[in-house]
Amino acid sequence: MDHLAKNPANYVALSPVTFLHRAAAVYADRTSLVYNRTSFTWRETYERCRRLASALRSRLRVSKNDVVSVLAPNVPAMYEAHFGVPMAGAVLNTINTRLDARTVASLLRHSEAKVFLFDSQFASLAHDALRHLLREDQTGGGVIIPTTTNIPIPVVIEDPHAGAVPRASHSQQPPQLGGLPLEYEELIAAGDPSAELPALADEWDPIALNYTSGTTSAPKGVVYSHRSAYLSTLSLLLQWGVGMEPVYLWSLPMFHCNGWTFTWGMAARGGTNVCIRHTLAPDIYRAIADHRVTHMCCAPIVFNLLLLLGAESSRRRGDLGPPVEVLTGGAPPPAALLEKVQKLGFRVTHAYGMTEATGPALICEWRSAWDSLPGDQQARLRARQGISVLSLADVDVKDAGTMSSVARDGKAVGEIVLRGSSLMKGYLKNDTGTKEAFRDGWFLTGDVGVVHPDGYVEIKDRSKDVIISGGENISSVEVEAVFYGHPNVSEAAVVAMPHPHWGETPCAFLALKTSDHVAAALEEEEILAHCRRNMPHFMVPKKVVFMPELPKTSTGKIQKNKLREMARELSIDFHSNS
Amino acid sequence: MDHLAKNPANYVALSPVTFLHRAAAVYADRTSLVYNRTSFTWRETYERCRRLASALRSRLRVSKNDVVSVLAPNVPAMYEAHFGVPMAGAVLNTINTRLDARTVASLLRHSEAKVFLFDSQFASLAHDALRHLLREDQTGGGVIIPTTTNIPIPVVIEDPHAGAVPRASHSQQPPQLGGLPLEYEELIAAGDPSAELPALADEWDPIALNYTSGTTSAPKGVVYSHRSAYLSTLSLLLQWGVGMEPVYLWSLPMFHCNGWTFTWGMAARGGTNVCIRHTLAPDIYRAIADHRVTHMCCAPIVFNLLLLLGAESSRRRGDLGPPVEVLTGGAPPPAALLEKVQKLGFRVTHAYGMTEATGPALICEWRSAWDSLPGDQQARLRARQGISVLSLADVDVKDAGTMSSVARDGKAVGEIVLRGSSLMKGYLKNDTGTKEAFRDGWFLTGDVGVVHPDGYVEIKDRSKDVIISGGENISSVEVEAVFYGHPNVSEAAVVAMPHPHWGETPCAFLALKTSDHVAAALEEEEILAHCRRNMPHFMVPKKVVFMPELPKTSTGKIQKNKLREMARELSIDFHSNS
């Protein structure tokens, strides 16, 4: 019976693009997307995506596996690209809008993007990036040699909401590339919604290319298959419990792992996408009130924004019914913060993931049995990264040397490894990187953690962040959590500082909420006392540095490498003085 | 980038068996299953399934793609077989317990079952079936030639709750097959939970074999792949909104499309399976109260049972919190019935499906906008079969001749066709049947329907020859064939007769060869006895009408529509008399 053959009816390539086709058929008149005064139905979104796909093919000569790059905030065109680009047989490459022109250029070059869609808000950045591409400027100088074959066709997304763009600026003039349709709506208009589009033959074909923000080395181009994107989409909807008729607020950039696959997920559920250009608290609260938002994802930093405005807005939220479900990534939010946010009408679930896992890989699934536990125990449970999403076949914590599983005792530390069909295909043009990322049938996350007896995984440290002091492993995350437990700490980062006796010792960098310098001085004492009260002595940082703000990458990650350098320099001072 | 290779970490064969592995890791101490006073955790269920798999391989020599048949109600062994059998690399074949011995034998023969697990409640049936297998009895007589190579190894599931089994009955003696472990718990005990089990290499491999009840001719063996079962499981959980910590009552037989995949689904969600041997109203209400059931599936006939006891039980249900979610198949329940059932604390969603689609294929997804419509309009909307589940790539209604889509106007009638990776691989040893089931990249359901402008599909007519009695499909053709098998029947036609308890029941119209009225009276008795001997009890017509000649069209076709009208009228008499 294993010889019953596959046929076109019972073996259909898995692709999240099928969700849009279905949405157009069964949710045709339901609102697919709202953005300021623009609003589309699923029928319209489908038609626009078909137009986009057709225009990309017929007008811009995009063909199978060509890369289409997009540099845009969460606007309709960005959403439509998630379907229109793969419907053309092409690969969607969304670019982080916080990158600098040189980096954008390097991504366009590396991906060999054929088309470059950019929002008018980022016209300067886009044009500068294209200019970088037009020159051989690897070293920042030299003779300009146009290499037009590698220049993507620029398409600007014009939008009156993009803000005042300095049109006079010389950098506003796009490179001259002939008379092609260069405006997004023109492209849509040029498309034929009834044109035949290529059928997907193989679900292993690429659908998206997402560059990591490169906290360690150069950005890597993570390639998703249609299969991985499909499976991840279904399993995240299920895991997060996204029910019928969701109203999803785009507070998470779509350029982050395709919005953790909820771009495609909203089509699967026939939900409504609420697009906002800026992730600002007033815009978020307004959108929640106007559209009765049910779900949103965001980085934990957004909670701070929400809390700042919270006092005024909570009354407004009061009669809006059930809380907004919030899925957040990155470090688990401190318990105190969570509590405040929940009071404002947000119910927070946190997840752990990475670009290579098409977004969230573990989710801290709450258990009803925990409801009756004391608050501090709940906080500890909530701080864990959790259990694997259903699209992963397995997660484990292994000794990186022997690749044997560590004891499931919440103590034995090892590397978190993943396995499953929602993982990336690999890194574009980086065989070494791809090879290093996988070992013995597992994907290596590079993060260090434990497995608790109940199967929940907890990160003990990003690999590089383990501080080894006098033979003891200190988790910087753990020390940071103590600092975040103090009401007046807004940012905390702990790194290793060389120490002549202990080898390494923790060094803390803190930013306070208090802007008043006199008050700050008083606070410092209080914070250090709090720290000593709340952690073992050996974990207490030997040095604490207060800064107005910690240095961050374009994606908002704290630049620990910079802090490590500072810690090394401080170490010299510190020891020569002491 | 399409050349990034698959590797064992990022391309893992999709299989619902992985859900059990995960459940054992992350829901280890949660209750997996309760049955009377028996209760297991997910850790225990996993261990028992591993034992079963290992014992099937090492003790019973089961190897890849061998069929293991199970004849049992919803007891723990039946649940465990859903994982243990595929974990052994074998194919699970669950058999409808309402079939007669001859049919069971024919299924065992057709599937070449290697092992035959049966519950002691069905020991007689199982032994009779094995006896049929031991003879060459295709014609019901002839020389007995033992064909031991084709006899499956019998394993009895002993259970004190199976009821008083007449041990003295000669049919209780199992055929002699040597000293193998013949009791299920012995088999479990003989298994080694740490034995290595074969890894699934190809998700297209078969996981289950489910025989249709034979809507056209002989029962067909529908083969599911691991892939189709996995996708169906995920998408049904999502579509029905099965959230965290579900408590699932087994009121639907697991032998129906593997319990519409919720056997596997409960492992995916770490839910609790509440097993009951008999689908009786007191047992259902008791289970709901004792275990705080959240979800159950059933045939619409079960609603009648619930309503009978409802008056007494509703008070008891009153303080049990949220309503029980009920997914039901078959014909949409009448609005009046639904209303009554909802009042008893059940929230009903109805689905449409078939064995070939791994269970529900369409689901009547309710829209909040419909809440405000008048009752009769709501009832009309609720009566529609609905929209495709997410594991299907597409559903359509097509002109069976031209295979072009009909207008989506709620009026144009065509055949309902499906496409997607949750569909069956095909029919076992039935190339003609498989070929006929698929056409031009679609699976033909054989059901006739329309598409409404909002994309919802509604059945207008079952392929007219199916009678749905108590959730079981009865093929009129099959029943007619039995009548035609009697030497004195000249014409036979079987149609559906409305029945207050079973929904529908077969009604037979017969014309005899004998013209002598006295002889005819004697023949009638003989024919009904012949009928009861040769078909499962539930297929036997509740009403048989003898006529000198059946009404026919000018071209000589029996006018079934006229007979249906007669059956409706007879039904009224029938019930007013009884």
From TrEMBL, chains A, B:
One of its GO terms (molecular function) is trans-cinnamate-CoA ligase activity. The keyword Ligase applies. Its EC number is 6.2.1.12. SUPFAM superfamilies: Acetyl-CoA synthetase-like. PROSITE patterns: AMP_BINDING. GO terms for biological process: phenylpropanoid metabolic process. Residues 21-428 form the AMP-dependent synthetase/ligase domain. InterPro entries: AMP-bd_C (IPR025110), AMP-bd_C_sf (IPR045851), AMP-binding_CS (IPR020845), AMP-dep_synth/lig_dom (IPR000873), ANL_N_sf (IPR042099). It catalyses: (E)-4-coumarate + ATP + CoA = (E)-4-coumaroyl-CoA + AMP + diphosphate. It comes from the Eukaryota. Keywords: Ligase. Residues 478-557 form the AMP-binding enzyme C-terminal domain. Belongs to the ATP-dependent AMP-binding enzyme family. PANTHER family: ACYL-ACTIVATING ENZYME, BUTYRATE--COA LIGASE AAE11, PEROXISOMAL. This is 4-coumarate--CoA ligase. It comes from Platanthera zijinensis.
